[in-house]
Amino acid sequence: MKNNKSENQLLVREVFSKFLDSKSHRKTPERFAILNEIYDLDEHFDIEFLFSIMKKKNYRVSRATLYNTIELLLECHLVRKHQFGSNIAHYEKSYFDRQHDHLILTDTGEVIEFCDPRLHNIKKSIEEIFNVSIEKHSLYFYGKKIKNEN
Ligand SMILES: [Zn+2]
């Protein structure tokens, strides 16, 4: 990460604030508290996890508010949504992220992030072949660790 965490917090707060203004959504302290918690996390999370950490910190935020705020954060690209195989949606902050993809270990549920520059070349060639401009992509690998039996 180039900036430190508090600078990043200010920046995403600004982005979210402008977005809420532009859509005439209310700028409630809960919404900013949720954004703040998400940008303090360094891992993927689901709504229940977010709910539990906010509860631990004595925020009075309902699950409905969490879902509603996550939808807004998705809309302004501050959060990215994932489906890692289970039917529970996972999320991660996305504003400062380098492009990365995910490898999911299906037996342990562990999610490993990787960045392979060759994907950029694949994207470029697909754009040329089909004469399109690609906006985003989604790639998940699912597998298991190979155990050496001896
Ligand atoms: Zn990720």
Description of the molecule:
The chain has 150 residues and is an alpha+beta fold. It has 2 domains: 5-93, Arc Repressor Mutant, subunit A (Orthogonal Bundle), CATH 1.10.10.10; 101-143, Dna Ligase, domain 1, CATH 3.30.1490. It contains 5 helices and 5 strands; from the N terminus they run ααααββββαβ. It has helices at residues 5-22, 29-40, 47-56, 63-75, 118-130, and strands spanning 79-83, 89-93, 101-105, 111-114, 140-143. Strand 1 (79-83) and strand 2 (89-93) form a beta hairpin. Helix 1 runs antiparallel to helix 2 and helix 2 (29-40) packs across helix 4. The protein starts with a helix and ends in a 7-residue tail after the last strand. The protein binds zinc ion. Zinc ion is lined by residues 44, 92, 100, 102, 113.
Q: Tell me the CATH architecture of the largest domain.
A: Orthogonal Bundle
The unique ligands bound to this protein are: zinc ion
Would you tell me the overall average pLDDT?
A: 92
Under the CATH scheme, which class of the largest domain?
Mainly Alpha
Give the amount of beta strand, in percent. Answer: 15-25%
The CATH topology of the largest domain, please? Arc Repressor Mutant, subunit A
Characterize the overall form: globular
**Approximate helicity band:** 40-55%
Question: What Rg do the Cα atoms give?
Answer: 18 Å
Q: What about the largest sheet? A: 3 strands, mixed
Topology as a string of helices (H) and strands (E): HHHHEEEEHE
From the helix content, strand content and strand pairing, which structural class follows?
alpha+beta
Distance between the first and last residues' Cα: 41 Å
Discrete helix count: 5
Strand order of the largest sheet: 4-3-5
